[in-house]
Amino acid sequence: MSSQPKLRILLTRAEIEAGIDKLAAEIRRDYLGKNPILICILKGSFIFTADLIRRLNFPLEVDFVQLSSYGGSRESSGKIKVVQRLRSPVEGRHVVVVDDIVDTGLTVAFLLDYLRKKKPASLRLCALTDKPSRRQVSVTIDYLGFTVPDVFIVGYGLDCDEDLRYLPDICVLED
Ligand code: 5GP
Ligand code: MG
């Protein structure tokens, strides 16, 4: 970013950590001994996934898929592109999709449909944040960290035009 962004903290790093502790406890309870595959949606979920799996601390696999709906702007185009495909076969496996934010829901609904066709043993969604006010398709979030208002958030992996992912807190980017 060329000019100084105006940021307001929405979730502090301590709040995020407490939220991930709670999510990890729920996922541990449900998946311990099942060797699940956690699918991290790049790029926004990479920090969340890294923190989550270290708290899970049991046998699991991680894979990555990169989808794009936003391009460079802040509005969803509604068209989902697969930028990087999944490598792991998921048939018969317990799959948990890990997402940074469910906004319109279009991106994750696309991925869940795609995965369901590959016949996993089970398929659930874990999202760090949810912006339900913007939803366009119905999505069930099985493990949710935080509900956020209709604002544009950055930090903790979430970007604005590829910048600001490094912020340790989740902040509102104010115009
Ligand atoms: P959806 O398809 O649900 O509208 O959102 C797709 C993706 O858009 C999210 O996974 C996320 O990468 C991005 N996105 C949606 N809302 C926000 C936001 O408030 N901040 C940032 N940085 N990205 C967002
Ligand atoms: Mg995302």
Low-confidence stretches at least 5 residues in length (pLDDT < 50)? Answer: none
Catalogue the ligands: guanosine-5'-monophosphate, magnesium ion
Quick one: how many beta strands? 9
Helix content: 10-25%
Alpha-carbon Rg, integer:
16 Å
Mind summarizing the main beta sheet?
6 strands, mixed
Between the first and last Cα atoms, what is the distance in angstroms? 13 Å
Helix and strand composition category: alpha/beta
Question: Beta fraction of the residues?
Answer: 25-35%
Number of helices, where a helix is a run of at least 4 consecutive DSSP H or I residues = 3
Mean pLDDT score: 94
Major β-sheet strand ordering: 4-3-2-5-6-7
The H-and-E topology, N to C, reads as EHEHEEEHEEEE
Q: Which of globular, elongated, flat, extended, rod-shaped describes the shape? A: globular
Report on this model:
This protein is of the alpha/beta class and 175 residues long. Helices cover 23% and strands 31% of the residues. The strands form 2 sheets. A 6-stranded mixed sheet has the order 4-3-2-5-6-7, sandwiched between helices. Helix 1 crosses helix 2. 29% of the residues are buried. The model has no long low-confidence stretch (mean pLDDT 94).
Question: Can you summarize this structure?
Answer:
With 175 residues, the chain is of the alpha/beta class. Helices cover 23% and strands 31% of the residues.
Layout of helices and strands:
Blueprint: E1 6-11, H1 13-31, E2 37-42, H2 46-56, E3 61-68, E4 81-84, E5 94-102, H3 106-116, E6 122-130, E7 143-147, E8 153-154, E9 170-174
Parallel strand pairs: 2-3, 2-5, 5-6, 6-7
Antiparallel strand pairs: 1-9, 3-4, 8-9
Helix pairs in contact: 1-2
This protein binds guanosine-5'-monophosphate and magnesium ion (MG).
Guanosine-5'-monophosphate is lined by residues 44, 69-70, 76, 99-107, 131, 152-154, 158-160.
